[in-house]
Amino acid sequence: MDERAIDNALLKKAIRGDDDSLRMLFGRHMDAVYGFLVRFLGSSSDADDVTQETFIRLWKNLKKFDTAKSFRTWAFGIARNAAIDHLRKRKNVPFSSFDGEEGGNVLTDSIADKADLPDAFVARKQDAEELRNALDELPPAYREVVLLRLDGDLQFDEIGETLGQPMDTVKSRYRRALAMLKNMLEKP
């Protein structure tokens, strides 16, 4: 049985009131959606809130889902929309957190970590930080394609469906985003 068929079987049972099927259906996609939202929003606490909002929206609209489509794609589309709503609300409330516009947190960035770390761990952390910073510099249309592809593990046709964009546009944005990231990371 393929992934879509499994999701649809669980969905049908969930619509009939089977709570275990609903938990299983949501559990199949929760980690991927959360991972996408952490990267998209740049904050695990924001991602917690938006993940909860996403699955509430999914639950409220289960009966409206078109089983000819991918549940995973639908979930990522709802997560993306919930994240955009969250960002809009956050922009309207100045000084609502210690997070800076560049994604850093003034409070946590100023606390020194006195623990000794192995060189390999430090190097990996620096590489990951450089990549995270480079991703944050990408234009939003390019960043979300990369995040949906890598963190969401979506195929290009699923990303196109999620974003309401043709697959060729998605592929083009992905290739351009990778080229931009390469240029940013190669700069001295």
Task: Produce a short descriptive summary.
The protein has about 190 residues and is mostly helical. About 70% of the residues lie in helices and about 0% in strands.
Key traits:
188 residues, mainly alpha, Rna Polymerase Sigma Factor, Chain: A, Arc Repressor Mutant, subunit A, 72% helix, globular
Care to describe what's here?
With 188 residues, this protein is mainly alpha-helical. The protein has helices at 3-15, 19-41, 44-60, 71-91, 106-109, 119-137, 140-150, 156-163, 167-186. The chain folds into two domains: 1-111, Rna Polymerase Sigma Factor, Chain: A (Orthogonal Bundle), CATH 1.10.1740; 117-188, Arc Repressor Mutant, subunit A, CATH 1.10.10.10. The N and C termini lie far apart (49 Å). Helix 2 (19-41) packs antiparallel against helix 3 and helix 8 (156-163) packs across helix 9.
Please render the helix and strand layout as text.
Elements: H1 3-15, H2 19-41, H3 44-60, H4 71-91, H5 106-109, H6 119-137, H7 140-150, H8 156-163, H9 167-186
Helix pairs in contact: 1-2, 2-3, 2-4, 3-4, 4-8, 7-9, 8-9
